[in-house]
Specification:
The protein has helices spanning about 5-10, 25-50, 55-65, 70, 80-95, 100-110, 115-125, 135-145, 155-170, 180-195, 205-210, 220-245, 250-265, 265-270, 275-295, 300-320, 335-350, 375-405, 450-460, 480-485, 495-510, and strands at about 20, 350-355, 365-370, 420, 465-470. The chain has about 525 residues and is mostly helical.
């Protein structure tokens, strides 16, 4: 068989040249853990107010100011899905009830529920006999998706929408009775995915491959034409929105583009403490797995179980001894965005062998066991659980401390990089290591440019007496004119705090207009 024939088989037929041996129990455990984590995520956002972490402080401030579109999402017209699914329901609740705290809780809960919605959508589009394929989104979320837990990134929606969309395309021929409804689901899922985040382009080749492989089945050419027409319309709509809705804040657009590019650089991932911890454990486990058979004759299952325990012990020790995985959640988005399409490719090319007999005349496959990968999943889960618990504990401490300072119940001490508004003289030049809060204090989870907005969210009644800001990392996403135009009576924000923020922006911020 030549390369041309192999390429034709992989691209234009539904053939799966790989086979993963894994029992139904193994799939059940992984999918069960996936469901548990997806159910827990919105509860964590709700209980710890994670909607206020990092950039989320500004998003939440804009929601309370009744200016979500003007302040935030007009600058990201290609991310309408998050705006419509998470922000608009909270804004509607706020307009209906005037319940500011309830609107924030709803916003955070909806944001945290994205993986759960992705799981439910996958269940809806997968035929019953193909439910085992939930293995792939389970691994995607448990190993990679949890890297960004707490950080308000739209890439969670990109990952969550990718899998049901891939399944909807792949199993389109299997819904002859309800094809119209399945096609509607395809259009809806496609729209959510395309308008989730600009990085959705990384998954488009995999979705195109899934569509091309429809040609080998009954009515394949017609189905391929249907999928192509749907995505052509969606991508044209995406381009029209990006071109037609010009972002009003050029500085925000430039900063976001620069940040997106920086995340693709290897340094952003090599300096990630959680990935460093995972790398250390894997560097010990891989040689052990490869060398073990030379010295001890044990089954692969037993070897995997022993190494899984070793991975859990080593990971727990590193979690306890080494740093906090907090701000690095921002850079981890790149790992999620690249890993998800890679697993999507494996999903398309791999048949799951759960012990059932192969069809007669089935082509031989390259077979591999799931056992060697069990320690990797265990390692990831222990790291996520340990680092997640540390993050939630420190986030609660930081929120309580910032709230006390914003309410005037506690002084701001020991942090030369931070200041209070109103501020008199400009700060002296920052010395080495003075530009950012100390790593061994609750302030390490402060997000430099959103600190002023976070001061509102943690203050009693969203009315801070003082506003904390970073004196050396300045960025004003809201202009002086915008804050002047903000009608205090129509917001849930304290008048005194808004006046402090407005005076600061007008004196030191970006030019009006």
């Amino acid at each position: 068989m030549g390369w041309a024939d192999l390429a034709r088989r992989l691209l234009l037929t539904g053939e799966q040249p790989l086979e993963l041996r894994i029992g139904r129990a193994g799939i059940g455990w992984l999918v069960g853990l996936y469901a548990a984590a997806a159910l827990a995520a919105p509860l964590l956002y709700l209980g710890w107010h994670l909607e206020a972490y990092a950039d989320g402080s500004y998003f939440s401030f804009a929601l309370l100011a009744r200016q979500s579109w003007d302040y935030v999402w007009s600058n990201f017209p290609g991310r309408l899905s998050t705006f419509l699914l998470c922000v608009e329901p909270a804004a509607a609740w706020l307009a209906l009830t005037g319940d500011d705290a309830g609107a924030l809780r709803l916003y955070g809960m909806l944001f945290g529920a994205m993986p759960l919605l992705g799981l439910l959508a996958s269940l809806a589009v997968l035929p019953r006999h193909a439910r085992g394929e939930l293995l792939w989104p389970a691994v995607s979320f448990l190993v990679f998706g949890l890297l960004t837990l707490g950080f308000p990134t739209e890439t969670w929606l990109t990952q969550s929408a990718f899998w049901p969309l891939l399944f909807a395309i792949r199993h389109l021929p299997e819904h002859p009775a309800g094809r119209r409804g399945h096609l509607a689901a395809l259009v809806l899922l496609g729209a959510v995915y395309v308008f989730s985040h600009e990085a959705m382009v990384l998954g488009l080749p995999l979705l195109a491959l899934a569509a091309l492989r429809l040609r080998g089945g009954p009515g394949g050419r017609r189905l391929l034409a249907t999928v192509a027409a749907v995505f052509a319309a969606l991508l044209l709509a995406w381009v029209a929105v990006k071109v037609g809705l010009r972002p009003p804040n050029a500085e925000t657009t430039e900063r976001v583009a620069a940040n997106q590019f920086s995340l693709l650089m290897p340094k952003a991932q090599l300096t990630n403490p959680l990935l460093q911890k995972a790398g250390i454990v894997l560097a010990l486990l891989v040689p052990a797995w490869l060398l073990w058979p030379r010295f001890l004759q044990t089954s692969r299952a037993r070897r995997a179980a022993i190494l899984s325990v070793a991975a859990a012990v080593l990971a727990a020790a590193l979690v306890a001894a080494w740093g906090l995985y907090g701000p690095h959640r921002y850079a981890a988005r790149a790992v999620v965005l690249f890993a998800t399409p890679a697993l999507g490719l494996l999903c398309l090319l791999t048949r799951l062998d759960t012990g059932e007999a192969l069809p007669a005349g089935d082509r031989p496959r390259v077979r591999f066991d799931a056992w060697p990968y069990l320690p990797v999943v265990v390692l990831a889960l222990v790291l996520h659980l340990g680092e997640g618990a540390k993050f939630l504990r420190e986030w609660a401490r930081f929120s309580a401390l910032l709230g006390a300072v914003a309410d005037g119940r506690a002084p701001l001490e020991g942090q030369p990089s931070l200041g209070l508004l109103p501020e008199g003289e400009p700060p002296p030049p920052a010395g080495p290591g003075q530009g950012f809060p100390g790593r061994d204090t609750p302030w390490q989870l402060s997000w430099n440019w959103t600190l002023p907005f976070n001061s509102f969210l943690v203050a009693e009644g969203f009315a801070p007496r003082q506003i904390v800001h970073n004196r050396y990392a300045r960025y004003d996403p809201v202009s002086c004119d915008q804050l002047r135009a903000l009608a205090v009576a129509g917001t849930g924000l304290g008048e005194h705090g808004l006046r402090l923020l407005r005076d600061y922006a007008c004196a030191h911020g970006r030019p009006p207009g």
